[in-house]
Write a structure and sequence with these properties.
The complex is a heterodimer of chains A (185) and B (183).
Chain A: H1 2-6, H2 13-29, H3 38-48, H4 54-66, H5 73-112, H6 117-141, H7 149-164, H8 169-181
Chain B: H1 7-20, H2 26-36, H3 42-54, H4 59-98, H5 106-130, H6 141-157, H7 162-180
Helix pairs in contact in B: 1-4, 3-4, 6-7
Classes of the chains: A mainly alpha (185), B mainly alpha (183).
Chain lengths: 185, 183
């Protein structure tokens, strides 16, 4: 039970604080999504502190990716594996508090100036970058598999289902799980 | 366009869309918020997502805060955020307790790999769905398409650090939009 609450590493007060503060700091550096800070989390938790092994770190990220929900939950799994529920709270609150506060303040500020030329050029100018970043993310997620004909076909089927039918993305995911379990990708 | 009736509806819709988001919530968010609930138009979604993406923090979390706040102030923001996080968090922690060892079973590993491929396809599909919006962009279509392509190449192919790409291409793109929007 204690392992669930606090983890099994027996961290001291100073270490809890360092864990929290490190994620607090990473929060504001996470431009383009939480996953962009994963390399630095790995450096801190695996390299500097040795709280998790490389394999544990990677497995934490993979587990969160496979489960439903926002990708940022990989931070919760890492926190949990370091320090149980308390560790999860330290990493999640650290990750979310600064960025959510800033996001709310900034949007409210922007909402009042919605029609200004500055804000309109800001959103118009960034829209193409958003689309470019989505294309890049899709490409990077295909890194391990994109040379396999099976994977390329699966992507093509997914695109067709999403663009040409009104089927929920869940069906595509189920198809992917079946194709993968059958050993075809 | 519809609007959500209450913070409770926000919570329910965001819980539902989060629980469908395997390998990322964004494609589901686009489908639920734009195509099913019709709270946002395709172009509004792209605009909000663009802002959510430059602000630090997880994009879809920022997006849910912005949408919640827009309808019901901080209560709406809290409801949307809670919807996005609570149920998936409980599930992923349960999974973490159960099974790091399950991942070594070949069947599970294969299924995870297949889901990963589809997750990538879903993100690409979202990009393609949003791209017709560039035709109405203040930049004009050719420059907008060029900026999208350069961003994809710099981040996806050349793997340049995101900060520099956003600062460099983003500044150039916004400056061009500023010039195009001159009165």
């Amino acid at each position: 039970m204690n392992a669930v609450l606090w983890g099994s590493l027996g961290l001291g007060a100073a270490e809890w604080l360092q864990l929290f503060v490190h994620f607090l700091m990473l929060s504001l550096l996470a431009i383009g999504g939480a996953i962009t800070t994963a390399p630095d989390m790995q450096r801190f938790i695996v390299g500097e502190r040795g709280w998790l092994s490389d394999a544990q770190f990677t497995a934490s990220v993979a587990l969160a990716q496979a489960a439903p929900g926002p990708n940022v939950l990989f931070v919760a799994v890492i926190g949990f594996n370091v320090g149980g529920l308390a560790g999860m709270l330290a990493t999640m609150v650290g990750t979310l508090l600064p960025s959510t506060t800033l996001a709310l303040t900034a949007t409210r500020w922007g909402e009042r100036r919605r029609d200004s030329r500055a804000l309109q050029s800001f959103t118009a100018g960034l829209a193409p970058l958003t689309i470019g970043l989505l294309l890049a993310s899709g490409w990077i997620l295909l890194e391990p598999t994109r040379t396999q004909p099976g994977a390329v076909a699966l992507v093509a089927v997914t695109l067709w289902l999403m663009l040409r039918t009104r089927w929920s993305p869940l069906w595509s995911i189920a198809l992917g799980a079946a194709v993968g379990a059958a050993g075809l990708v | 366009m519809r609007t959500p009736a209450s913070s409770r509806e926000l919570f329910a819709v965001f819980t539902r869309l989060a629980m469908q988001g395997f390998g990322g919530v964004l494609p589901v968010a686009q489908r639920e918020l734009v195509e099913r609930q019709r709270w946002l138009s395709q172009d509004q979604f792209l605009q909000m997502l663009s802002v959510a993406q430059v602000l630090p923090g997880p994009n879809v979390i920022n997006l849910s805060l912005m949408i919640g706040d827009r309808y019901f102030g901080w209560r709406g923001a809290a409801a949307a955020l809670a919807g996005m996080l609570l149920a998936p968090l409980a599930l992923v922690l349960a999974l973490a307790m159960l099974a790091v060892r399950l991942q070594d079973a070949p069947l599970v590993a294969g299924a995870l790999r297949g889901m990963g491929v589809v997750a990538a396809g879903l993100v690409l599909a979202t990009a393609l769905k949003l791209s017709p919006g560039l035709r109405r962009n203040a930049l004009g279509l050719p420059p907008a398409a060029l900026f999208a392509l350069l961003t994809a190449l710099a981040v996806g192919w050349l793997r340049w650090p995101l900060v520099w790409v956003v600062l460099g291409l983003g500044l150039a793109s916004c400056a061009l939009a500023w010039w195009r929007l001159r009165p």
